Amino acid sequence: MWPAAAFAVVGGFLLAVAAAPATADQAKVPESREEIVLSFAPVVRRVAPAVVNIYAKRMVRQQAFSPLFDDPFFKRFFGDSFGDLGRPRERSQNALGSGVIVDASGLVVTNYHVIQGADEITVVLADRREFPAELVVSDERSDLSVLRIDAAGEGLPTLEFKDSDEAEVGDLVLAIGNPFGVGQTVTSGIISALARTQAGISDFNFFIQTDAAVNPGNSGGALVTLDGRLIGINTAIYSRGGGSIGIGFAVPSEMVRTVVASAQSGGRIMRPWTGIAGQTLSADLAEGFGLARPGGVVVNRVYDGGPAGEAGIRQGDVIVEVEGEHVNDVETLQFLVATGRLGGNLGVQVFRGGDVVDLALPLLEAPETPPRDLNTLDGRHPLNGATVANLSPALAEELDLQGAWQGVILLKVPRGTIARRYRFRPGDVLLEINDEKVAGAVDVGALMTQTSDRWTVVFRRQGRVHRVELSR
């Protein structure tokens, strides 16, 4: 005999509750649909209207069928008889994704990779209304972008944020989006893990992992809790064949809220920084520091006058907690600081010389000192075509170059330029040219034109210093 079950209504849901074993006389057949149905429909009805489809169109140049069509020798014999077949042509390329309306004024949050490079963006609501969208802010580091649509006074449904710090492994969640372009779809699952920092998806590697089915087209869609609030933006999946295998990743709502706040305040991404360069505390390092377990960030360098310096953090300290949250690695520290409120303070706990010290980290924006002084080089030398800039804490944060606070960096090295032919790369930091120290971006051109046939360039690439002798 199966045990009887009682049913209770909780938050709009009918939940089966185990009861004591029933006798044959007590058992009865359910008399209504409500007594046997467990449904997420009340939540879906409330939140689905705020989840939108996003269509991004970009124009790309398509190369001619064969490079022979542009070859002068080929044209000598055939002329232009092949017409447009030999000329590059433009064609339209479309991208599909999802988004979430987070503000009644028309702000829509989605993934950066959904609208990257788009010339035209269209937002389609669940009720089939269509609106052209303008890009307000893009943040490649978090893989988030904010769009704005003008509903001309018509009402827009929105989703309220839920604090992602309140999430726990095992919580039920719903994923809503437009997988494979089939139309709005809802899937359910649980939060499988929190603070995933090794996914390799964006600079701020700190994700909610869920087993709710997420597929291509879901990017930018909503991950919501059963109280109907937004806890994350679905961003990526782990997959061997392109489909869902139950491992999806969402950007936590605290990071989403930070990017949306930047859009609301003028469109410039503003986030705090630490002012340190550090490394994750490994098991070997933990033993050397006298700590019982790995985890935390060892401070290798402190920027003079930066937030960490003001807080009293020193080289050799191990940052183990921020606002009561255990710091597992560098990525965790970056996320916790980046989602803080500028102008405030964070409580930081460091391990120093066998003691635990509590400090207050001021939340300040990284300074752009010195100015970038962007300079695209020309002239008859190996750096022709490269764009150089002065490094600063602000630029280092933007490029995710931890601790690279000074120097002159190659910011762009386009294909086809002389600099690219000499195998220089974006991210190379120039140290010396012809045995003279590179002091600033504006000096690089003059140093390169001092000679006309031979150059000695010393630069740093991925932590290693290279010295090369170049000639024309």
Q: What would you say this structure looks like, in words?
A:
The chain is 14% helix and 37% strand. The chain is mostly beta strands and 472 residues long. It folds into 4 domains: 5-39, no CATH class; 40-268, Thrombin, subunit H, CATH 2.40.10; 272-365, PDZ domain (Pdz3 Domain, Roll), CATH 2.30.42.10; 375-471, PDZ domain (Pdz3 Domain, Roll). The strands form 6 sheets. Strands 23, 24, 25, 26, 27, 28 and 29 form a 7-stranded antiparallel β-sheet that branches. Strands 3-4-5-8-7-6 form a 6-stranded antiparallel beta barrel. A hairpin with a 2-residue loop joins β1 (5-10) and β2. The radius of gyration is 28 Å and the shape is globular. It starts with a strand and ends with a strand. Residues 1-20 have low confidence and may be disordered.
CATH architecture of the largest domain: Beta Barrel
| Coarse structural class | mainly beta
The main sheet comes to: 7 strands, antiparallel
Helix content: 10-25%
Rg on CA atoms, Å: 28 Å
Approximately how much beta-strand content do the residues carry? 35-45%
Low-confidence stretches: 1-20
Number of helices: 10
Number of domains: 4
What's the level 1 CATH class of the largest domain? Mainly Beta
What characteristic shape results from the CA principal axes? globular
Which secondary structure elements does this structure contain, and how are they paired or packed?
Elements: E1 5-10, E2 13-18, H1 41-47, E3 51-62, H2 72-78, E4 89-103, E5 107-111, H3 112-115, E6 120-124, E7 130-139, E8 144-149, E9 172-177, E10 185-196, E11 207-210, E12 222-225, E13 230-237, E14 248-252, H4 253-264, E15 272-273, E16 276-280, H5 283-289, E17 297-302, H6 307-311, E18 318-322, E19 325-326, H7 330-338, E20 345-352, E21 355-362, E22 364-365, E23 375-376, E24 387-390, H8 393-398, E25 408-412, H9 418-421, E26 429-433, E27 436-437, H10 444-448, E28 454-461, E29 464-471
Antiparallel strand pairs: 1-2, 3-4, 3-6, 4-5, 5-8, 6-7, 7-8, 9-10, 9-12, 10-11, 11-14, 12-13, 13-14, 15-22, 16-17, 17-18, 18-19, 18-20, 20-21, 23-24, 24-25, 25-26, 26-27, 26-28, 28-29
